Amino acid sequence: MKIQKVLERLLQLHPKSEPSTLSRIKRLLKNLNSPENKIDNVVQVVGTNGKHSFCVSFREIIEKAGYTCNLNISPSLRKFNERYYFSGKYISDEDLYNLLTEVEKKNDNQSISFHEVITAAWILHASRNKSDINIVEAGALFRLDSSNVFKKNLCSVVMPIGIDHRDFLKEGTIDEIIYEKCSHLLNESKIFISQQKKDVLEKIKKNTSNNTSKKYIFGEDYNYKKNDISFIYKDKIGEMNLPLPNLLGDFQISNVSTAIAAARNINKFKVDEIHIKKAITKIRSEGRLQNITRGKIRQYVSENNQIIIDGAHNPLAAYEIKKYLENLSKEKKIFMILGMMVNKEHKKFIQIFKDKIHSVTAVNIPNQINFIDKEKLSIISQSCGIPSKTANSIEEAFKNIANENENAIILCTGSLYFAAEILNLN
């Protein structure tokens, strides 16, 4: 409860009308005695999708090789502490409270965004809790993101880029998004570019053409080929036959491959095939194509209903989810429970699932403010040619679907915040 009160105060420090800038976090970091300059071996991760999967995969590999990691991610799912990982464990409630209040006091009630102040807090704690590697996931964009305060790094990682967060941009084109994410990656380092759509990759290459960092590009410098029970990873170091990661969806093999490429090609650390084999079967990534096989929400459905949760919230992610659904049983109907935030491309997201799902049940996202109303979401679904209705709660949505079809697959998607609420309910 104490932590929640601090977070609520921090949310009030920044008028949303103020433009994005790095000046506020740089001012706060200076007042904190510049902790960003005391952190070594930073891995900065940008992109639209797959950032979290890369981060947890890379961390698992590095830790299996015997090194320690600090990790900063956003958003968290079930508990705010998930954003703050230091040397093998998440920060305790007591340490988090003390850290946030210390930074709040140093900020002295000056205007600063929530994301900026909590990033500054993570940087401060990481500077005091030294690890071999510090993994930092960028926010919505990167050029003016609070994670863009380091003067040097081990590498930058560019995960798949697509259209999202247009409300932060002037035009919202893919060119503008690539510019925001890639134009200010650090020079004289290494850049790992994950699997991208062909036109996006060409734009990334053009955008980073003057960057002096060494580039490692999926499809050119590293690649993979999937078999039924394994996959072959290959780069210029050599080839490995690896077990499939314990993450659902072929796109996750691509994300894991980028983590492997980074781990193998950062010369400062020794990572071998044994470490990688052990790591990729232990990766945990909640809210990303997660099967719910037990827990409280199972009481609302039949034992034959399969429940899948994924926090996908943009068209690029929707395409990947659709690919995964195509590999499921053709005999089972797929029902979608959908909750989305108001600033997303709702119609473009939903229409990707046309002819793949039986119906949509739209719900409001609990404990959030900026969600799109379920009635509006249902109307959008219907305009995509998908039968749709609403439910007053997540529980009611599950019950209604189970009553209609006891053998259905139930896909819950549309937002990481929505995924988090389902996991907390469970």
Q: Report helical residue fraction.
A: 25-40%
Largest sheet: 8 strands, mixed
CATH class bucket of the largest domain = Alpha Beta
Distance between the termini: 21 Å
- According to DSSP, the number of beta strands is 17
**Percent of residues in beta strands:** 15-25%
Number of helices, where a helix is a run of at least 4 consecutive DSSP H or I residues: 14
Q: Can you tell me the number of structural domains? A: 2
CATH-assigned homologous superfamily of the largest domain: Mur-like, catalytic domain
Mean pLDDT: 93
Query: What is the name of the CATH architecture of the largest domain?
Result: 3-Layer(aba) Sandwich
Q: Which value, in Å, is the CA radius of gyration? A: 21 Å
Spans where pLDDT lies below 50 across 5 or more residues: none
Instruction: List the strand order in the largest sheet.
Output: 4-3-2-5-1-6-7-8
Which topology of the largest domain does CATH recognise?
UDP-N-acetylmuramoyl-L-alanine:D-glutamate ligase
* Shape, per Cα inertia axes: globular
- The chain-level structural class is alpha/beta
Lay out the secondary structure:
Layout: H1 2-11, H2 23-31, E1 42-46, H3 51-64, E2 69-72, E3 84-86, E4 89-90, H4 93-107, H5 114-128, E5 133-137, E6 155-158, H6 174-182, E7 190-193, H7 198-207, E8 214-217, E9 222-226, E10 230-235, E11 239-243, H8 250-265, H9 273-280, E12 290-292, E13 306-309, H10 315-325, E14 334-338, H11 346-351, E15 359-362, H12 374-383, E16 388-390, H13 394-404, E17 409-413, H14 416-425
Parallel strand pairs: 1-5, 1-6, 2-5, 6-7, 7-8, 13-17, 14-15, 14-17, 15-16
Antiparallel strand pairs: 2-3, 3-4, 9-10, 10-11, 12-13
Helix pairs in contact: 1-4, 2-5, 3-8, 3-9, 4-5, 6-7
